[in-house]
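Batch queue: ligand-bound targets. Current item pairs a single chain with flavin mononucleotide. No template structures supplied; prediction is de novo from sequence plus SMILES. Inputs echoed for audit trail.
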Amino acid sequence: MERFPYPDDALILAPLSGYTDLPYRRAARAGGCRYAFTEMVDAASLAHARKRSEGLLLRGAEETFLGVQLVGADHEFLKRAVDVLNEYEFSLLDFNLGCPVPKVARKGAGAELGRHREAALACFALLAERSRHRLSAKIRILDPGDPEPTVELARGLAALGACAITVHGRVKEAFYSGPVAFHVIRAVREALPEVQVIANGGVTGLEKYDQIRRETGCRAVMLARGAMGNPWLFRELTEREAFLPPTLREWRALVEEHVAGMVRLYGEESAMRISRKILHDYFRGRGFHSEVRAKISFLSTMEEFRSFLDCAVAAHAESYWNSPNAAPGAERRLRWEEI
Ligand SMILES: Cc1cc2nc3c(=O)[nH]c(=O)nc-3n(C[C@H](O)[C@H](O)[C@H](O)COP(=O)(O)O)c2cc1C
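Prediction returned. Tokens below.
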């Protein structure tokens, strides 16, 4: 077995609650993603209502690397959840110590647990004892002014057997915005050469990708919001200057397949409802009129969706091709093609 779970320059799709289901990952993989995670799975839900959480554990036959992410703080639930996960095949079991949302924090889990090192390590020790999967953890920095508490948490996780640790360079209170404390991620990487440290936070394009790698010294990077609606980001960061953005037709085909995958998984009614936020992401920054985008919220059948896509593509703003949006520096682009 390799010492580290990912190759040096791996680009990893983050676990994203409410997003990274199988159709989402398939879209990301079509854009060049090779390493991905399920949405986070709550230990109590897995222990109590296994059937309802099982959908989150679906793995496509083509998914050569898929990690599962577990969140929780209650030892009994964690044990039972690990027993369930032991029946499945995953490339990694990742422990969530970074989620800031109140629903999770109230239970003392996620980022709240990450702030209590002894309690966090006790949970991780339990996972290490019981899980048959390789273990990793995803943490947030604890103090942008002092790397030591974050390094200490990571050191404890490494001592218990974590082979990789993703460090999101923002504190719990910052949620998902604001500067990323590169120096704290760097301190963790320098202190722990025995684990693979993955840098996370704010990567939306080549410039920020180069910056996070340069400033943290990490080679592996995790992408989250930058890849929302832009699965081509994986290829863009890998191919760099040689990257060709999708044409309108390629963009359309991927969006349609993503939603069709959701319909197959959830049924038409649910899929149309939950795909709205995903469609808004796909339409962002690619030159569609706001009146076109406003229609997304009213789609209720696949047939409506297909004719909406036809209209959206036909009405795609001509001005886009002359605007700075189509310029090479823009984060989301389309490639011109005569239709
Ligand atoms: C909608 C949404 C859902 C998320 N769900 C999870 C999750 O389930 N598990 C997790 O570890 N992080 C989750 N995150 C955090 C991301 O994985 C990532 O750490 C964070 O967005 C910072 O990266 P970014 O600046 O590139 O977006 C979520 C973030 C967002 C915006």
